[in-house]
Design brief:
Layout lengths: L10 E4 L2 E4 L10 H5 L2 E3 L2 E4 L2 E2 L2 H14 L8 H14 L5 E9 L13 E8 L7 H6 L1 E10 L16 H12 L4 E6 L4 E3 L4 E5 L5 E4 L8 H12 L4 E4 L3 H4 L4 E6 L3 E8 L2 E2 L4 H14 L2
Parallel strand pairs: 8-9, 8-15, 12-13
Antiparallel strand pairs: 1-2, 1-7, 3-6, 4-5, 4-6, 6-7, 9-10, 11-12, 11-14, 14-15, 15-16
C-alpha cells in the first residue's frame, strides 16, 4: 500500500520556519479550506535545480494578487525558501508545492481579516504516468465538465478553487478506464486536460495547440512552444474545434508533473507516438537536466 502523503518523513517550510512533516497542520476554520482562498504552484527540481523557478514563483505571487491576497514574502524570497526546502529534505530530483492561503483569524466570505500564509513542501516524485505509458502513450476521453468563461472565474490564477472541475473530470476519466480527459471550454472548443496542456501534430509536422486565453497558460507549455520554434517546427496557437483532434497524427501533453507525455488514444481514435513527440520529449529532458 502506498504511504499516505501526510505520513511522510521530512520537513515543510511554513511562514519562514521548517516544521516536521507530520506536524504541518492548519486550523479547521482556515479560510482557504472553507472558501478556497488559496493559490499554488507545481514545480520540479532536476539535479537540485528547479526548472523555471523564477517564472513559477512570479506566477504564484500574481495568482495571489488576482485573489486579492498580499503575500508576506516576495517571489525571490520564495525562490530561496524552495532551495532551502530541497536541501533540508536532502532532495535533488523532486516535486515542489508552494501554497499561499488565508488563515483562520475570521470566518465568513470577507477574507481580508485573515492572515496570509505561505508554505512549501517537496518530495520525490518519479514519472507521473510511468515508463511504459511514456512509450505507448496515455489514453484520454472527452471530459464531462467544461472550462469556465473568463468572466465567471479568475482563470489567469492557479487558484485551488478552479481545480474542483479538474478533480471531478479526472474521476470521470478514471471511472471510464482512461488515464485523463480532454476538456472543452464553454463553447465546446478544445481547451486542455485536467492538469496538462495539449499539443497536436498535424500533416507536414505542423504543431497546433489551443490558444491559452481561456485556461492557464502552462509554464512547461510556454517552454515547449519556444523549444519547437527554436528547432524549426511550425507551431500555431489557435481556437480548435473537436473535429480537428481526429485529424492529428500525433498528440502529446505537457505539464510540470507530466513533462512531455505522448497520447496514444483519445476515445476510440488511436495515435502513433511519432518522431515529433519523441524529438521534443528528448530535447525537453536534456534541457531540464542541463
Amino acid at each position: 500500500m502506498t504511504q499516505p502523503i501526510d505520513q511522510k518523513e521530512g520537513y515543510i517550510w511554513i511562514d519562514g520556519e521548517f516544521i516536521e512533516w507530520k506536524e504541518a497542520k492548519v486550523h479547521f476554520l482556515t479560510h482557504g479550506l472553507h472558501y478556497a482562498s488559496s493559490v499554488f504552484e507545481g514545480e520540479r527540481a532536476y539535479n537540485g535545480k528547479v526548472f523555471k523557478l523564477k517564472e513559477h514563483n512570479d506566477r504564484l505571487i500574481k495568482s495571489a494578487e488576482i485573489l486579492d491576497m498580499k503575500s508576506p514574502y516576495t517571489a525571490r524570497e520564495i525562490d530561496t525558501a524552495v532551495k532551502e526546502c530541497l536541501i533540508k529534505n536532502d532532495l535533488n530530483d523532486a516535486y515542489v508545492r508552494p501554497l499561499i492561503w488565508r488563515g483562520s483569524e475570521s470566518m465568513g466570505m470577507m477574507g481580508r481579516h485573515c492572515k496570509t500564509h505561505v508554505g512549501i513542501a517537496c518530495w520525490k516524485w518519479p514519472s507521473y504516468f510511468g515508463a511504459e505509458l511514456m512509450e505507448k502513450g496515455i489514453s484520454l476521453c472527452i471530459g464531462n465538465w467544461k472550462k469556465p468563461h473568463p468572466e465567471t472565474a479568475p482563470i489567469e490564477a492557479k487558484a485551488s478553487g478552479l481545480y474542483t472541475i479538474e478533480t471531478l473530470t479526472k474521476h470521470y476519466a478514471i471511472d471510464k478506464g482512461f488515464h485523463d480527459a480532454l476538456m472543452l471550454d464553454w463553447e465546446g472548443l478544445v481547451a486542455e486536460c485536467t492538469g496538462m496542456n495539449l499539443f497536436f501534430v498535424m500533416e507536414n509536422d505542423e504543431i497546433v495547440t489551443p490558444l491559452a486565453d481561456r485556461f492557464l497558460n502552462g509554464i512547461t507549455r510556454q517552454a515547449i512552444i519556444q523549444m519547437a520554434k527554436d528547432k524549426g517546427y511550425t507551431i500555431t496557437e489557435k481556437r480548435m474545434k473537436l473535429d480537428e483532434v481526429w485529424e492529428a497524427k500525433e498528440v502529446f501533453v505537457t505539464g510540470t508533473a507530466a513533462e512531455v507525455t505522448p497520447v496514444g488514444r483519445i476515445e476510440d481514435k488511436i495515435y502513433k507516438v511519432g518522431n515529433v513527440t519523441k524529438d521534443l520529449k528528448q530535447t525537453f529532458e536534456a534541457l531540464v537536466r542541463s
